[in-house]
Every structure is written in structure tokens, then in C-alpha cells.
Design brief:
The protein is α+β, with helices and mostly antiparallel strands. The protein has 12 helices and 5 strands.
Length: 326
């Protein structure tokens, strides 16, 4: 049986985000799911595109028990949000991470600017993906959370972080009052969660840089190392463990290397890496919930920057741990 993922109105009709369906080809899987969910599902299926393990596929494409088949309907204007090729996804992360590494080597001001830019493109990516699967989430309060978190922390330090994080939740709730389409509980909860992560995560990155460029370098190396290992586990057969386990193990290993190479004190960094490893998984789970409507270890994921979901969340626990043990 192949794992079939459903998005937007197909997910609503079926009442589930995923289902195991028998079939040796895409066509057989589609025929089986139509027989299972009926005529309404068949009518909605007409304009949908089919993707197998992140690549667009036709009815004759073979599938196995390990395959993940995604049925993604077009959205307004005929566009479709799907997973980009795996190489492009990791390439985008590499470009953004390179900008953060370079800004960290410059000074706090440039690092704060880089964090705003990275946080902004992530905010747009995750809110668009959530909206396209049928959960209305506005990017505006998330962008405000990123900007408020970075500016508040840059100017007022930990006090700015606290105020920005609290304010981010309030902005998300108030925005749902202003915009009626954002009032369903799924939209309110999603907006509030993403705003909190955006504000706290970006603020924590700036707090790390205010403490030490070496500790910031250690954090960036830790999370990038973890993401690379997770990508290798997801996109290739190079690692014997699943992407989530690779993410956690990679963070701990990356933290150990970073602590030995750059950090002034090894113990806080390795403790921060352990905390970050848990937060990376939590951030990925939040991302899959927002983007795909469920918790998935790997496979297709709408949007282009889902690897940043965990990185943004991991910054807070890493900063908190190295500060606590200082």
C-alpha cells in the first residue's frame, strides 16, 4: 500500500490528511481512493496534480509501499503549492544560512538585518502553505512578530524579547478580530503559534549575537549540520536512520563539534545543542501541521523553506540553555 496525502478540499471531503491505498501505479491508487471516497471526491479530483515522493507523476508512474503520493488541487489563479525538488530546498537553506554566517562575522547590526530578512521569507512561506491547504493564516502579524522581536531585542535585550513574544500573541489574536476570515479556531491557533515561534526564535538569535559571535556561530553550525543530515536521510539512502532521528543526532553531534571548535565553554554549547535537537523536531512538527495538516517524518511538504521551521524554533532553547549555564 502507498501512503496517499490529501490537501485542501480533497482533504476536507475525505475527512483525513492521509490514507494508505493499495496499487502498483498512480492510476491504481487514484482509482482505489475514488472508490473509497465517492463521487464528490472524484469531481474535486479532476484538476488536481499528482506528485510521488516530491516529483510530479502520471497515472503510469509505479509506486511501492514506501511511496508517498500527494494529490494537490490548484488554488486561486490555477497555481499549485508543492514541494520543490530536494536539491532546491536544501540550496535555499544554504543561501539563507550563508547570509546569517556572513552577517554574524560582521557585527550585531548586520546580523539583526539578516535575521529579519530570513524571518520574513520564512513567514511568507509557511503562511502561504497553510492558506493553500485551507487554513487561513495571514503573513502580516507574523512579519510584525519578526520585526518587533528583532528590533525590540536589539534595542532592549531580554526585556525586548519578553515584550515582543507577548505582543506577538496579542497581535495574532487582534488580527483575527480585524479580519473575519481568520476567526476560525484553526486559523487563530495557527496564527498565534507561528507568531510566538517567529518572535521568540528571531529574538533569541539576536540575543545570542549580543552575547557572543562565537556562540552564534556554534548555534548556526549546530542547526545547519542537523538539517543537512536530516536532508540526507530523507532524500537519499546514505543514512540508516529516519529524518527525525537524523535531525536530533545531527544537532547533538554538530553542537559537540561547534563547542570544541569555537565556543568559549563546551558544556553550555552541548547542553544548548541537546535542547535545540528537541526544538528542531518540535519545529518540524509544527511546520508539517501548518503546511500539510498532520505530523509526518518525511516526504512531500508544501512550501520552499520548511527546513527553517525547526531552525527558527531551536534558537530559543539554545540561547536559554547557554545563558542558564553561563
Amino acid at each position: 500500500m502507498a501512503t496517499l496525502r490529501l490537501f485542501a478540499n480533497l482533504r476536507e471531503i475525505a475527512g483525513t490528511p492521509s490514507v494508505d491505498v493499495p496499487g502498483a501505479t498512480v492510476g491504481e491508487v487514484i482509482d482505489a481512493v475514488v472508490a473509497k471516497f465517492g463521487s464528490d471526491f472524484a469531481a474535486a479530483l479532476g484538476p488536481a496534480r499528482v506528485w510521488v515522493d516530491g516529483e510530479q507523476a502520471g497515472r503510469d508512474h509505479p509506486v511501492t509501499e514506501a511511496s508517498e503520493v500527494a494529490l494537490i488541487p490548484p488554488v486561486s489563479g490555477g497555481a499549485t503549492v508543492v514541494r520543490n525538488p530536494a536539491g532546491l530546498e536544501i540550496g535555499l537553506v544554504a543561501i539563507l544560512a550563508g547570509g546569517l554566517f556572513a552577517a554574524n562575522a560582521a557585527d550585531v547590526k548586520w546580523f539583526a538585518i539578516a535575521v529579519v530578512l530570513v524571518g520574513a521569507v520564512w513567514a511568507i512561506d509557511i503562511t502561504r502553505a497553510a492558506t493553500y491547504r485551507g487554513v487561513a493564516v495571514s503573513a502580516i502579524p507574523v512579519l510584525a512578530a519578526v520585526l518587533g522581536g528583532v528590533l525590540g531585542t536589539y534595542r532592549f535585550g531580554a526585556a525586548g524579547l519578553a515584550v515582543a513574544s507577548t505582543g506577538a500573541a496579542l497581535v495574532a489574536l487582534l488580527w483575527s478580530v480585524v479580519v473575519p476570515s481568520l476567526r476560525p479556531i484553526t486559523s487563530v491557533a495557527g496564527s498565534t503559534a507561528v507568531c510566538l515561534v517567529a518572535a521568540f526564535g528571531t529574538s533569541a538569535m539576536v540575543m545570542l549575537r549580543l552575547r557572543s559571535s562565537d556562540e552564534t556561530l556554534a548555534f548556526l553550525f549546530t542547526v545547519v549540520f542537523a538539517v543537512v543530515l536530516s536532508w540526507l536521510a530523507s532524500a537519499t539512502d546514505a543514512l540508516p536512520v529516519d529524518p527525525l532521528a537524523s535531525l536530533m543526532l545531527g544537532a547533538v553531534a554538530g553542537g559537540a563539534l561547534a563547542g570544541a571548535l569555537w565556543a568559549p565553554d563546551f558544556v553550555p554549547v552541548i547542553a544548548g545543542a541537546v535542547a535545540a535537537s528537541i526544538a528542531l523536531v518540535a519545529g518540524r512538527n509544527l511546520g508539517t501541521l501548518m503546511r500539510a495538516g498532520g505530523f509526518f517524518a518525511g516526504g512531500s511538504m508544501p512550501g520552499s523553506l520548511h527546513y527553517l521551521d525547526g531552525i527558527i524554533m531551536a534558537a530559543g532553547p539554545f540561547w536559554w540553555m547557554v545563558t542558564l549555564l553561563d
